[in-house]
Each structure stands twice: as C-alpha cells, then as structure tokens.
Amino acid sequence: EEPQPTATDPLFVFGDFNFRLDTRAVVELVAGEAGVAVALARDSPEVPLQLNAPPAIFERLLSAPLSFLLQLTGKPPAILARFLSAPFSFIRSALTLHGKIVCSRLSAACGWLFGATPPASAPTPTPAPTPAPTPTPAPPRPAVILSAKSIELVSLPALLAAPAGLRACDVELAAFNEAHPTARLRELPIDFQPSYALEVGEGRAYATKRCPSWCDRVLMDDRAFALVAASPTPAVYGSSFHPSRILTDHDAVHLAFTL
Fold first, then answer.
1. Helical residues (DSSP H) of 95-200, grouped into ranges
2. 59-70 b/e with 16+ CB inside 10 Å = b?
C-alpha cells in the first residue's frame, strides 16, 4: 500500500496551469491607456483591432542601454551612435514596431544607417505644369493586434529581451493566493522565456493564438519552498526546450535542487 501524504509533507504542484497574462495590462504596456480605451470601445470578435504604440515606447527604446540595442540589432556602436544622434521626430518616423524585430527594422528612409546602400540620386525632374500630389503617408504600424482568440505583440522581441514588463502582467497566482490565504502556493523567481504558445517546427517563434505566457510552472507550499531554499546547491528553475526544434507548443519547465 502506497504511503498517504500527511499535513507535514512538503507539497509540490507542477504542470500546465493554463495561466494567462492579464490582457488589459499587456495592452496598456504596449499601447498605453489610450490603447486600452480604444480596445474597450471597439471590442468585437469579428474585426481585428490594431493599436499603435504611444510615444513612451519609443522613449523607452531610445533610453535603453547601448548593450541592449546592440543585442537587438547586432550592429556596431558607431552605427547606433549615428542613429541615436538624429532628431527625435526623425527617429520616431523611422522606427517601426512590426514583425519579429523592433530596433533593426527601419523604413527605407533611414535604411542606410544600418549599412544598406543608399538609393542613387534621382535625376532632376522636368518641371510639370501642375505640382504632383503629396503622397499619403503610410499609417503607423501597430504595436498590438487583437482579434478573436488571437493577440499579436509586434514588439514582442523587445519585450522578451527585457521581460519584466510582461512578467508584471502575470497575476493569476497572486490572485489565487489572495483568494485562498490558507492554501498559498509559492515558486522561485521566473527567469526564463514564456513557455506557451510556441510554433511547432524549426527555430523558436511564438504563435498568435494567445499572448505568450508562463503556463507551465512548478509551485509549492511553504514547507516545499523551505526544502528548496535549503538546497546545498543553488536551485535551478527554468525551461529546457531544444532551440533548434520545437516539438510541441509548450516548453518543458523544470525545477532542480539538492536534498
């Protein structure tokens, strides 16, 4: 007969808890309070909603340490210095928040800053009898796209490179502990990439069927937490995905410590 747990045994609870990030907090993070207001006013499961980033996201990007910008772009410091010394209005019009890159994808207007060959000088046009119409500027690219069962954070690489903002939107465990103070669960600090939802296949990319989140967790009660804290070797809490091949839409998350 298997031994039955007692009230003094340490309790570990692990698996896919389906934790989701607070969508409102995520929208506010990338599109500001104005973006939240627009999302609430135009909430519709049928029509995708594109929200633009507020100026604050550009200010945060420009105030980031040079090492962070180098990590995003992979470009030499001299190239970045030329870019960062440009007027703010020029930078704002040139930067885009779209696709799988943030700082390194620039409009054609300033592609030369990152080593692209500048366009050849156009010949002087023959004066026309009437001035050519001013082209309509392209609409700003969105920071977040919301639709039914889908959320695309086009600034995701920058958010994952400095994930404290996204982690602040992870509130379900705190809500559980507040509602059940006698059954409080704890975990080690999260210092790994969101474990869900990954695109299955080569490389590592996130699907848009849900906002990336830390679904897979190892939780414990106070006794188990004390056991882990007493480990003679530092406990390791993280994910163990194979970076070149994703077999499921979840990362495998593990906790390792010494008794």
1. 156-161, 164-167, 172-179
2. eebeebeeeebb
